[in-house]
């Protein structure tokens, strides 16, 4: 499924036909007929509870393997609009529209990427009514969990997090005096 999404994206019900046109049957020793949409759907359902852990492990492995610079990253929020009522959804709602379409319901997506390489460090789906100003602190806490609760994390990265104001107790203080984090890079 991952290769299909990267090489020639198809809807689930067409993955079987796509696989038959590739060398994957021989490579994986799986017949294309076994890759029907029901089986793929069940597999995706089984994977869903583990997505955060899988994604985090992939990010950590990419950081280690490619020595990705974590000193600078970008956080941005974008919106994805929907057409229709969506009366049962708690996430799809009216809010600030980046597309200048205030008449459409939306969800917001907060994304963190590394500055130099654009590697996605994480994302969060936010309700369409979520105000941008309410997201940075929780975003910083999530990044701190990913980037500092790891044995591979260096003291330099710790001082970087303290320099931008994320304290060890999880609070945010952008005007933290230098004396608060002096010596962390030793």
Task: Describe what you observe in this structure.
The chain is an alpha+beta fold and 186 residues long. It has three domains: 2-50, no CATH class; 69-132, no CATH class; 135-186, no CATH class. It contains seven helices and three strands, in the order αααααβββαα. The chain has helices spanning 2-7, 15-20, 24-28, 37-47, 51-66, 136-148, 155-163, and strands at 73-82, 105-114, 120-127. A three-stranded antiparallel β-sheet has the order 1-2-3. Strand 2 and strand 3 form a beta hairpin. The model is unreliable at 151-186 (pLDDT under 50).
Summarize the SSE layout with pairings.
Blueprint: H1 2-7, H2 15-20, H3 24-28, H4 37-47, H5 51-66, E1 73-82, E2 105-114, E3 120-127, H6 136-148, H7 155-163
Antiparallel strand pairs: 1-2, 2-3
Quick structural summary:
Helices cover 35% and strands 15% of the residues.
Helical proportion? Answer: 25-40%
**Total domain modules:** 3
| Overall geometry | globular
Radius of gyration: 21 Å
Low-confidence sequence ranges = 151-186
Describe the main β-sheet briefly.
Answer: 3 strands, antiparallel
- Binned strand content: 15-25%
Question: Can you give keywords for this protein?
Answer:
15% strand, 186 residues, three-stranded antiparallel β-sheet, 7 helices, single chain, alpha+beta, globular
């Amino acid at each position: 499924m991952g290769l299909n999404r990267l090489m020639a994206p198809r809807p689930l019900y067409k993955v079987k036909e796509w696989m038959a046109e590739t060398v994957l049957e021989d490579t994986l020793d799986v017949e294309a007929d076994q890759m029907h949409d029901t089986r793929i759907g069940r597999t995706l359902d089984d994977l869903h509870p583990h997505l955060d852990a899988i994604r985090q492990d992939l990010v950590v492995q990419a950081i280690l393997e490619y020595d990705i610079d974590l000193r600078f990253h970008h956080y941005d929020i974008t919106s994805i609009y929907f057409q229709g009522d969506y009366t049962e959804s708690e996430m799809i709602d009216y809010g600030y529209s980046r597309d200048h379409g205030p008449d459409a319901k939306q969800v917001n997506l907060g994304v963190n990427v590394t500055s130099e390489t654009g590697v996605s460090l994480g994302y969060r789906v936010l309700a369409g009514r979520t105000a941008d100003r309410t997201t940075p602190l929780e975003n910083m806490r999530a990044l701190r969990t990913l980037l500092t609760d790891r044995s591979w994390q260096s003291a330099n990265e710790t001082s970087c997090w303290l320099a931008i104001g994320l304290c060890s107790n999880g609070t945010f203080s952008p005007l933290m005096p230098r004396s608060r984090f002096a010596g962390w890079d030793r």
